[in-house]
Amino acid sequence: MKPANIFLTVTAVQTDAVNSKTQFAETKGKKIAYRSIGNGDTIIFVNRFRGTLDTWDPLFLDSLAENFNVVTFDYTGIGSSSGTLPTDIVDVATDVKDLAEFLELKSITVLGWSYGGLVAQVATLQYPELITHSILVGTNPPGHNEIPLEQAFLDCALKPINDFDDEVILFFEPNSEASVKAAKLSHDRIAKRIDVSKIPSTMDVFQLYFAGGAGLREDNLKFRDQLKATTTPILVICGDHDISFAVENWFALLRELPTAQIIVFPHTGHAPQHQFPELSAKYITNFIQLTTK
């Protein structure tokens, strides 16, 4: 059932990420777990491979919630949401649309990280009447990309449970003292409420993610070409050493993407928004505000 007053639901929840209440959108035969903090225009966050409501850095969320209504959610079949994660990213992207409709939102910004960046791109191109801006973090464009993921990703990402050392390798830059320090700070912030039992940990679920990624690499629906024609403002934020989605894969599209801007953080890995949460939030805030028609 929908909340009696959706505007009260969006604005009256707890004011910070650590204390925000988990709510449920019962829509289109599924039950999507979500949280909402802050006020203003809405940004819907779309999560990484194995990500849940708890795996976003609270400081990043709180920094954006100073200017926006920040909504995080679990995909269908992931975390606290019901069902099974679809193997087609086009179907996964319907979660974004369905959640927005449940919340009676006429327009949103979508922010996708990693696998979520792939979902965010599909949503942006499928629902241009809904999505006004697209923020893509630590991800790659659809279609063929020259630089594959590194073996270090596979060595760590497929473990049933990741420890801090794995997180440094997966999301930060192990060769940078500053990055490792930032990793510890981010890890400790996330640890304040994380429920590890909700994090996908089995190969059968991993394969659902991989199938979606493989489909987008095949790109039968020509999303890569659609990016070259979109009028939606796109901000790409990457680290200079992302072991899963190399920033260099965007370079082939330079001069071909009419609305995309790219920010590259130095000595940074797959989670630039966790290494630089406040700075990333400022870039995103300025981008949205200064590219809004």
UniProtKB/TrEMBL annotation:
MF-aspect GO terms: hydrolase activity
InterPro entries assigned to the protein according to its UniProt record, in alphabetical order: AB_hydrolase_1 (IPR000073), AB_hydrolase_sf (IPR050266)
Keywords, in A-Z order: Hydrolase
Source organism (scientific name): Flavobacterium taihuense
Hydrolase as UniProt keyword: yes
Name this polypeptide is given: Alpha/beta hydrolase
Signal sequence residues: none
Domain AB hydrolase-1: 43-275
